Amino acid sequence: MLRRLERSDRLNWSVIEKYLPLYEKATVLTLKIGWLGVLFSVAIGLAVSLIVHYRIPVLRQTAKIYIEIFRNTPLLIQLFFIYFGLPKIGVSFSPEFCGVLGLGLLGGSYMAETFRSGIEAVDKIQYETALSLGMSKAQVMFHIVLPQAITYSTPAFVANIIFLLKETSVFSAISLMDLMFTAKDLIGLYYKTAECLVMLVVFYLLILLPVSVIGSVVERRLSYASFGD
Amino acid sequence: MADKLLTIEHLKKSYGDNLILKDFNLTVNRGEVVVIIGPSGCGKSTLLRCINGLEEIQGGEIKLYGEKIDRNKKNIAEIRQKIGMVFQSYELFPHKTVLQNIILAPIKVQKRSKSDVIKEAEYLLEKVGLSDKRDVYPRQLSGGQKQRVAIVRALCMHPEIMLFDEVTAALDPEMVREVLDTILELAKQGRTMIVVTHEMSFARAVSDRVLFLDKGEIIEEDIPERIFDNPKTERARRFFNTFEYDAVKNHTDTLNRKV
After folding, report:
1. Are residues B105 and A136, on separate chains, in Cβ contact within 8 Å?
2. What CATH code is carried by the domain that includes residue B79?
3. What is the DSSP string of chain B?
């Protein structure tokens, strides 16, 4: 009895091998939707942060409302609205598109705040110095402010990317066959809970560790280029 | 006939209810070095910022060669190219090397040829003794070195007039000299400058004319010899007295004798 228990505690490698292709397929889907969502969120974030920075009337207030709504509601609920809610008013998208859209909108609100704080971290007198050299506002933004702002916001930016890629785990709720969906599905079918969960953790680490490592390298490089140390 | 480069007429500047400059008038001729001194909060720095169009003004006019300086007008960037400004906190761009700091605006704004600008930058760097710092980042420089780079950066735009805003105030005493020597050299070349400073002996050496400012008004205006040695107003006398009580001993003694 005791021995049998011990044996069942150990991971069954043949099961892992069998599930591997399914996990790989799910990883590809998670990566695809995750990174498309990240790209989308960067685009939204940049646009929104510039709108807020330049205090463009109307758009600015809209941007603020957008940020507050999407930062303060869970992704799962946003996905429900997009996937189950929008069809009720005649707009329906594929689960994949909904995933990218949801992630992009959620991430956009985070990215906007990250970029805005980066832009604000650049001292006002740096703008003035650049202006005093005769640069146009666009030149100041492009040559002086943005390069420094990017450096300031890199740590938060990398954290956002990791956060967003992890958030993909709720996609299973809109029937996207991502990693979480695959693991839950397999557990439900074959009860190989330990194997499925360990694989889930390993695959998430495989997705996220490189981001983390590359992120800190980029951070160091940028800070060297920006501040010389 | 003097060549009027900068004219300020009835300039009024306030922050909300706080009136900084009231009805300020000043004319600076080409080749003239005007030094502005006064207690902190008297409006010296604000004046320089107004001249560079960095501040909204509430009244009056500032003209450079008859062209109105208005921060909301399209040509402001063009006018600013003719006004070189050096700030107290240097404000080098931290993400660019010394050379990149200097050549950025001449290349991007004035569209001059890169090789020409680099040649000029190298020449100017050599003159201020910083040739070997060409490719380092600002962080690796001392305060005095940063300030000399900032001066070179402004010079490289070929400005008509240079504005110095307390450029040695943030420096260690031993670095003050190297920066002041640089400015003195520029004065000798006949450059037009407005210098805001607390360095009295430097002010005396560099200036053609000294303005004593208090509470946004010119209290006294004279050639340096007269204003320092024999100020007409009580306010200026008191100000110089607190400044030079031990630096220029006999100066203080004369004042004491008079009081």
Report:
1. no
2. 3.40.50.300
3. ---EEEEEEEEEEEETTEEEEEEEEEEEETT-EEEEE--TTSSHHHHHHHHTT-S--SEEEEEETTEE--TTSTTHHHHHHTEEEE-TT----TTS-HHHHHHHHHHHTS---HHHHHHHHHHHHHHTT-GGGTTS-GGGS-HHHHHHHHHHHHHTT--SEEEEESTTTTS-HHHHHHHHHHHHHHHHTT-EEEEE-S-HHHHHHH-SEEEEEETTEEEEEE-HHHHHHS-SSHHHHHHHHHHHTTTSHHHHHHHHHH-
